[in-house]
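Sequence decides. Consider this:

===
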Amino acid sequence: MTRPRFHLAFPVNDLSEARQFYGGLLGCREGRSSEAWVDFDFFGHQIVAHLAPDECAGVVTGAVDGKQVPVRHFGLLLDWADWEALAARLREAGQAFILDPYVRFAGEPGEQGTFFVRDPAGNALEFKTFRDESRIFAG
């Protein structure tokens, strides 16, 4: 069965920086592009960085676990080992974390790891993992 894939378009202020972050740092293959946008294969999903500098300002945060996280963000659910490997790769590259990798609900049914980073345009990305994927939507 083919899984549904999501498509997300988001603003950036520099396509070269977007290519370095998404292509170089995260390892996303580049697809089609123009002078105003570039497609990336975001772990099997299509994301499109659109050149729109005026849309890149302002960050609204909300409280989660006593930490301030960006309300507007996107990201992925990864396998635990892939999540740890990505966190290590970002650390080794000197990428700043908005929220360092940590485990929520340790030892509980919804145990999950999470971390947040920003791309060069200020867009927030969250990368998560679950010990038990059947608990992703559990209440």
